[in-house]
Design goal:
The protein is an alpha/beta fold and 327 residues long. The chain contains 14 helices and eleven strands. It folds into two domains: 163 residues, D-Maltodextrin-Binding Protein, domain 2 (3-Layer(aba) Sandwich), CATH 3.40.190.150; 125 residues, D-Maltodextrin-Binding Protein, domain 2, CATH 3.40.190.10. This is ABC transporter substrate-binding protein.
Amino acid sequence: MKFRLLHALVCAAAVGASACAAAQGAYPSQPVRLIVPFAPGGSTDVLARAVAEGMRKELGQSVVVENRAGAGGLLGTEAVARAEPDGYTLGMATVSTMAVNPLLYGTRRVDPATQLKPVAQVATVPVVWMVNPSFPAQDFAQFLAELRANPGKYSYGSPGVGSLGHLNLAAMNASLKVEVLHVPYRGMGPALTAAVGGEVQVQQDQYASAQSLIKAGKLRAIAVSAPARLAGMPELPTMQELGYPQLNALGQTWFGLVAPAGTPDAVVQQLNQAVARALADPGLVQRLATLGAQPDTGSPQAFAERIAGTLAANRKIIETAGIKLDE
């Protein structure tokens, strides 16, 4: 009894109670909360719930998804940053929350480098570049030629000012040396409706939600931002193949898990391994495939590097395009 008490005191003094518990194999001893900073039913929410189920099997504890939508993902991300760093609160991280919002919310923002701790990347979702069927181009070469011949004639619908779609348009204009006008909408749904109706002529969206519109002939796909050609649309070239690696990288939407800064490394490693094992399950891989998502995991450090790289690329786009967001 005295030895166990002495061991506990030494452990707590040396590395903190939570880290000590993790080192003794006590973690997790209760359900883990996974905060999704967007509303239920969206791609981030659906992906989070699929991964949470896989992690539950690996951790032996429930992973409870909690939606905290608002301010483009800022409210939920703030909740994660302010939570106890004990491994029992995680957050779903996206390109928007990690590499767009920190650049646009000046006085009210969450710094991923100091307030959050990367746990694991989860998946990457390809983005398809599309045009309205009335647009006079059948492929990317014709698309590019038409835009260059008619600067300012065509428009692009985004989910809003400062959205990832807005940044992708700015990057497209700069990379392709074209002038496509930006039309912001209140969300991706209205933006897609505008593209289908011809209010805007150029659009891009995640493959999962775009494929039904493409197959129905309501929008025409001309290229995809993805690591490789899509199995469901093998005729579609990637932006990498077409000679635009920046658009290929920026257009891919990635998702991952983060924890509050200060979460013990031992706990983060345990969570990272649980994610990796979950993503190795063929059943989960198939579920992700229905979302157009490709499993894409690695070490916490690799995820931190991807966040930093995307943040740097987006900072350049925002500064060059002069994008600002009223808080």
